[in-house]
Design a protein that fits this description.
This protein has 327 residues and is α/β, with parallel strands linked by helices. It contains twelve helices and 18 strands. The protein starts with 8 loop residues before the first strand and ends with a helix.
């Protein structure tokens, strides 16, 4: 049984999983188009409307209706609607699409703390600056509730990891001492909503970030598949807390085709791993053994230790070569 055949739907993160700065990652489009199960795109990025995301997906060869896209912008406004009166004033910090969605839900959108908003809703947008953050801080100090679409501290782009919404939210939190209520991953709501959209009974959550994609899928009691194409690399996996550990690990989405027994942590590729005090020794492997095979071998042992290993010590030529590739 392969990882893919074990599940009836894919709940896919976008940034770092499907694309990088809008450019599709290797093999992703072919995998999604030929996988034979429905996909829903679950993204913490609140800067784009579902319609805009659907168009971007279409531009890279993936057909998706707006019902197949769940954004943290939708989630945060649903959360705000449960906490403030219908038609209340919201000070929106973020993209125009977030403001449009708020208006569509019947809220009155304002841009100044002087308008006495009932809540501040912050989502990611590249144009957010000091003035926007200051208005939000002033409104919160005057009693407005504080909501954030997501708390991702970084955002994968083609040049590397850019400043994410969580880092911008932290500026207001630092200035006010008020912690926002976050609607996005790792909260389970977006995952359960996405599964209901397509009637999935056994969905697989796929993502590149342990503290949002994987922790969120786990919190929704779903199987999770971590791809090494975005934020969280090998070293972060080794040190991951229990709640952020994926069921399966792949170099990319093409490894959804692997047998379940291979994609799980476990000895493979001719590698063996064992504890040596607080360290972990990696041995074996041959010229065809891969970095991700070494990682799965290490994870089975590392995750059974009472605390993360102090050092990973490669004890063979191949082990040294693949560990040098880890980040």
């Amino acid at each position: 049984m392969t990882v893919l055949s074990k599940h009836d739907a894919l709940l896919l993160d976008l940034d770092g999983t499907v694309w990088e700065g809008g450019r599709p990652l290797s093999n992703v489009v072919d995998v999604i188009n030929t996988c034979g199960v429905p996909a829903v795109y679950v993204t913490n990025n609140a800067s784009r409307s579902p319609q805009a995301v659907a168009k971007m997906l279409g531009d890279i060869g993936l057909t998706a209706g707006t019902e197949q896209i769940v954004t943290s912008a939708q989630a945060v406004l649903q959360l705000a609607a449960e906490e403030v009166p219908a038609g209340a004033k919201l000070l929106i910090i973020g993209a125009d699409s977030l403001r449009d969605l708020a208006r569509h839900m019947g809220f009155k959108v304002v841009s100044s703390a002087d308008d006495k908003p009932a809540a501040v809703v912050q989502g990611f947008d590249r144009s957010v600056g000091w003035e926007h953050l200051t208005e939000g801080a002033l409104a919160i100090r005057q009693g407005a509730k504080f909501f954030a679409s997501n708390l991702d501290t970084s955002l994968p782009i083609e040049r590397g990891l850019a400043v994410g919404n969580g880092s911008l939210v932290a500026a207001i939190q630092s200035a006010t001492g008020v912690e926002p209520v976050s609607a996005g991953k790792p909260e389970p709501a977006m995952f359960t909503f996405a599964a209901k959209q397509i009637g999935a009974k056994k969905p697989l959550a796929v993502g590149d970030r342990l503290d949002t994609d994987i922790a969120g899928g786990n919190s929704a009691a779903m199987d999770t598949f971590h791809v090494l194409t975005g934020v969280s690399g090998e070293l972060e996996l080794i040190e991951a807390p229990v709640e952020a550990r994926p069921n399966f690990i792949g170099a990319g989405m093409h490894e959804l085709a692997l047998p379940v027994s291979v994609a799980r942590p476990g000895a493979q590729g001719g590698f063996t791993a064992r504890c040596d005090g607080h360290d972990l020794l990696l041995e074996g492997g041959d010229e065809k053994s891969t970095s991700v095979q070494a990682l799965r071998t290490v994870l089975e042992v590392a995750w059974a230790m009472p605390s993360p290993p102090r050092y990973i010590q490669p004890r063979s030529e191949r082990a040294e070569k693949v560990v040098a590739q880890w980040r």
